[in-house]
From TrEMBL, chain A:
InterPro entries referenced in this protein's UniProt entry, alphabetically: AAA+_ATPase, ABC_transporter-like_ATP-bd, BCAA_Transport_ATP-bd_LivF, P-loop_NTPase
Gene Ontology BP terms: L-amino acid transport
Alphabetical UniProt keywords: Amino-acid transport, ATP-binding, Nucleotide-binding, Transport
PANTHER family: HIGH-AFFINITY BRANCHED-CHAIN AMINO ACID TRANSPORT ATP-BINDING PROTEIN LIVF
Pfam families: ABC_tran
Gene Ontology molecular-function annotations: ATP binding; ATP hydrolysis activity; branched-chain amino acid transmembrane transporter activity
Family to which the UniProt record says this protein belongs: Belongs to the ABC transporter superfamily.
ABC transporter domain: residues covered: 6-237
Organism: Roseivivax lentus
Protein name, per record: Branched-chain amino acid transport system ATP-binding protein
PROSITE patterns (alphabetical): ABC_TRANSPORTER_2
UniProtKB/TrEMBL annotation, chain B:
One GO CC term on file: plasma membrane
Keywords: Cell membrane, Membrane, Transmembrane, Transmembrane helix
Chief localisation class: membrane
Example of a GO MF term: branched-chain amino acid transmembrane transporter activity
InterPro entries with a match to the protein in the record: ABC_transp_permease, LivM-like
Compartmental location: Cell membrane
Name the UniProt record assigns to this protein: Amino acid/amide ABC transporter membrane protein 2, HAAT family
Length: 244, 322
C-alpha cells in the first residue's frame, strides 16, 4: 500500500504547554480520500486540525505528510509542503475583494498565477461574477467557496477543513461538501471536521470519532453508518462515554 | 506683514515635517496595527544621525563627518532603520499593550543616552556644528525658509504618494489581510512576523526622515527635541486625523500643530502671570484631553479609513454597488 497522505501518531498537543487538549491521538488520512473527524463540542477536533497545521504546539508524537515529518513546522511553511488549512470561521479576508483574496493566495504562484486563477474561477463560477466585490459581501456558502479557492490557490496535496458546512443552509452545505468530494477526484486528500454526523458518514471514506481529546472509534464510514453503537451515541442523542 | 509671512512659513515647515512623521506612524498603526509608543526615538535617530553625519567636525562629541546633505539625511534614515530593525526583532512578538510599553521604554532610553553620552551626542547641550545646506548662497532669511518649506513639502508629497501606492500594492493587501486575520494569512503561507517587521522599519525610516528634516531646519538637536511629549503629539495628530487614512494623518498634523501653537500663544498672552510657569503643563493637559476626547467621541478620527468592514462580516459600503 502507498504511503498515507497524512499520518498522525500518538500526538499530544494543547494551547498551553502544561495543559494538553489532545492525548495520544492517532489518525491516518489516505491519499485522494475524504477522512472526517466527528465528536461532541469541545472534543478537540479543531485543536487536532490546528495541531496538524502547525498552529497549536505538539508536545509529543509525530505528524507526517507524504513521508515527510512536519511536526511543529511553522504554519506559514505548511503551504510549501502542500498542506492547506481552512479555518472554521474567519477563513477569508472580508475587507479585500474576491480577486484580491485570490491574488493574495496566489502570490507564490509566479508565472502560473493567471492560469491557476482562471482554473479556480472555472471551478467556482459563483466567484467569477463577483471578482470586484468585497469578500465580506458574500453569502455563507460563497464564503466557504472562496475559502476553498484560496486554499486551492496554494496548490495543496492535502486540505484540512474545519466544519466547512457550519452555519450554512442545507443546500449550501450540500454544495460545499459536493465540492470537497469533487476535489478528491483530482487526487487531493481531504481531512475535515463535520458536525452533521449522518452527512459526515455519507460523505467520507473513513471516519474518526474523537471525545475529550482522545480517539474513540474509527472505521470505514459505511461501517460506522450501520454501527448500532454509533447510531445510539450520535443519532440517539446519548453522550459519548470516555474510553467506550 | 513680513513678520506674519515669516511666521506662517515657520509654522508650515514644522507642521509639514511633523506630518511626515504622522504618515510613518500611520503605516505602523493605521495600516499594520503596530502600537509604536516610541516615535520620539525613531524621529530622534534620524535627527541625530543626520546632524552627526552632515555636520562639521566638533571637539567633544562624535562627528561631524561633513557628508553631502542628501547622504547625511539618508544616513539619518538608515540609523532610524537600524534602530527599528533591532527593536522590531525584539518586540514585535509582543501584544499591542506590551509593544507600546516596550517601545515607550526604548524612547525613554534613547533620550537618556542622548542626554548622558556626551561623546556621542553632545549631551544635554545638544549637537551643534551643522550648517544648513545651500545656506551660503541663499542666506538665512525668509527666502531660505520658503525654499526649505518647498523642499519638505515635496518630501511630504513623495512620502504620501509612496504610501498610497504601498497600501494598494500586493504588500498593502498583505498588511490588510494579516491585520484582519492572522491565522488565515499564515495558512496561505504568509509570514506575519516578516511583514510586520518590514512595515515597522519602513514607518520608522519615515519618522527618521522627519527627524532629520526637523534637525536640519533648526541646525540643532538636543534631548529636549526627543521627549516623550513628541510621541504623544504625533499620536494625537494621527488620532485626530483618522488612523488608516493618509490624508487624514496630514490634516491631523496641521490641525494639532495649529492647536498646540495657538494654545501656547494664548496661554503666554492671557494666562495670569502666576500661571505662566505652568503654561507648558497646561498644554500637556490639553493634548491629553484631545486624545481622550477623540477616543471617546470620535475614535475613527475626523477622516476615517475609507474602507470599513464590520466585525459581524457584512461590509458597510457607503456607495451602492455598480
Ligand atoms: N485558543 C484556545 N486556548 C486555550 N484553550 C482552547 C483554545 N481553543 C479551544 N480551547 C479548548 O480546547 C478544547 C477543545 O476545543 P476545540 O475547539 O478543539 O473543540 P472542537 O471539538 O473543535 O469543538 P466544536 O465542536 O465546538 O468546534 C476545549 O476545551 C476548548 O476550551
Ligand atoms: Mg471546532
Amino acid at each position: 500500500m502507498a504511503d498515507p497522505a497524512l499520518s498522525i501518531r500518538a500526538v499530544t498537543a494543547g494551547y498551553l504547554r502544561d495543559l494538553p487538549i489532545l492525548f495520544d491521538v492517532d489518525l491516518v488520512a489516505e491519499a485522494g480520500k475524504i477522512t472526517t473527524i466527528i465528536g461532541p463540542n469541545g472534543a478537540g477536533k479543531s485543536t487536532l486540525i490546528k495541531a496538524i497545521a502547525g498552529l497549536v504546539p505538539v508536545t509529543s508524537g509525530t505528524v507526517r505528510h507524504g513521508g515527510t515529518d512536519i511536526t511543529g513546522l511553522r504554519p506559514d511553511r505548511m503551504a510549501a509542503h502542500g498542506i492547506a488549512y481552512v479555518p472554521q470561521t474567519d477563513n477569508i479576508f472580508r475587507s479585500l475583494t474576491i480577486r484580491e483574496n485570490l491574488d493574495l493566495a496566489l502570490r507564490r504562484a509566479g508565472l502560473r498565477r493567471d492560469a491557476i486563477r482562471a482554473r479556480l474561477l472555472a471551478q467556482f463560477p459563483a466567484l467569477q461574477a463577483k471578482l470586484g466585490d468585497k469578500a465580506g459581501s458574500l453569502s455563507g456558502g460563497q464564503r466557504q467557496f472562496l475559502a476553498l479557492a484560496n486554499a486551492l490557490a496554494t496548490e495543496p496535496r492535502t486540505i484540512l477543513m474545519d466544519e466547512p458546512s457550519a452555519g450554512l443552509s442545507p443546500r449550501a452545505a450540500e454544495e460545499v461538501l459536493e465540492m470537497a468530494r469533487g476535489l478528491t477526484e483530482t487526487g487531493v486528500t481531504i481531512l475535515l471536521v463535520e458536525q452533521n454526523v449522518t452527512q459526515a458518514l455519507r460523505l467520507s471514506d473513513h471516519c474518526y470519532i474523537l471525545a475529550e481529546g482522545r480517539n474513540q472509534i474509527d472505521g470505514k464510514a459505511a461501517d460506522l453508518l450501520g454501527d448500532p453503537v454509533v447510531a445510539e451515541i450520535y443519532l440517539g442523542g446519548k453522550r459519548l462515554r470516555v474510553g467506550a | 506683514m513680513i513678520g506674519l509671512l515669516s511666521y506662517l512659513v515657520f509654522f508650515a515647515t514644522v507642521a509639514t515635517i511633523l506630518a511626515i512623521a504622522v504618515l510613518g506612524l500611520n503605516l505602523q498603526w493605521g495600516n499594520t496595527g503596530l502600537f509604536n509608543g516610541g516615535v520620539a526615538a525613531f524621529f530622534g535617530a534620524g535627527a541625530y544621525g543626520t546632524l552627526i553625519l552632515g555636520g562639521t567636525p566638533q571637539a567633544g562629541h562624535l562627528g561631524g563627518f561633513a557628508m553631502p546633505y542628501p547622504l547625511a539625511l539618508l544616513g539619518g534614515m538608515a540609523v532610524a532603520a537600524a534602530l527599528a530593525w533591532g527593536v522590531g526583532r525584539l518586540t514585535l512578538k509582543l501584544r499591542h499593550d506590551y509593544l507600546a510599553i516596550a517601545t515607550f521604554g526604548v524612547a525613554v532610553a534613547f533620550e537618556n543616552v542622548m542626554r548622558n553620552a556626551e561623546w556621542l551626542s553632545g549631551g544635554a547641550k545638544g549637537l551643534r556644528g551643522f550648517e544648513r545646506p545651500l545656506q551660503e548662497g541663499i542666506g538665512s532669511g525668509l527666502a531660505y525658509n520658503a525654499l526649505y518649506l518647498a523642499f519638505v513639502a515635496s518630501l511630504l508629497l513623495l512620502t504620501y504618494l509612496f504610501l498610497e501606492r504601498l497600501v494598494s500594492s500586493p504588500f498593502g493587501r498583505l498588511l490588510r489581510a494579516i491585520r484582519e486575520d492572522e491565522e488565515a494569512a499564515r495558512s496561505l503561507g504568509k509570514n506575519p512576523a516578516k511583514v510586520r517587521l518590514t512595515a515597522f522599519v519602513t514607518g520608522s525610516v519615515i519618522m527618521g526622515m522627519a527627524g532629520g528634516l526637523y534637525a536640519t531646519f533648526y541646525a540643532f538637536v538636543s534631548p529636549q527635541d526627543v521627549l516623550p511629549i513628541l510621541t504623544f503629539q504625533i499620536w494625537a495628530m494621527l488620532i485626530v486625523g483618522g488612523a488608516g487614512n493618509n490624508r487624514g494623518a496630514i490634516l491631523g498634523a496641521f490641525l494639532m500643530w495649529g492647536a498646540w501653537t495657538a494654545s501656547g500663544w494664548a496661554l503666554s498672552r492671557h494666562a495670569p502671570v502666576e500661571a505662566q510657569i505652568y503654561a507648558g503643563s497646561i498644554q500637556y493637559v490639553l493634548i491629553g484631553s484631545v486624545i481622550v476626547g477623540m477616543l471617546l467621541w470620535r475614535p475613527q478620527g475626523l477622516f476615517p479609513e475609507r474602507l470599513v468592514v464590520s466585525q459581524s462580516g457584512g461590509a458597510t459600503r457607503p456607495a451602492p454597488a455598480k
